[in-house]
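Researcher: I'd like a candidate sequence for this fold, 90 residues long. If you have to choose between options at a position, lean toward the conservative one.
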């Protein structure tokens, strides 16, 4: 299982990104089930939050767990498209 660590510039930016993903999921009725499942997992998780740095500026990190490799890749792409600064899979 993979952990996905996502960096955002602020908690507000994180909320906006998750709202974009939620809206995208609602519009993807005909998307492959694997994609829908990965996005639903991302939205249903309560991430662990911690302070972080990105480009020597304060940021927040949201840490999600329980992703298989394919779901982690789908979540990473969706998060980056929605405005995350960086996504790290561990």
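Model: Candidate sequence:
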């Amino acid at each position: 299982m993979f952990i996905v660590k996502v960096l955002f510039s602020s908690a507000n930016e994180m909320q906006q990104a998750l709202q974009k993903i939620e809206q995208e999921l609602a519009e993807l009725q005909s998307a492959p089930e694997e994609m829908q499942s990965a996005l639903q997992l991302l939205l249903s998780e309560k991430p662990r939050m911690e302070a972080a740095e990105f480009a020597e500026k304060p940021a927040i990190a949201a840490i999600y767990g329980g992703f298989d490799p394919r779901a982690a890749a789908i979540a990473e792409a969706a998060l980056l498209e929605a405005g995350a600064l960086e996504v790290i899979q561990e």
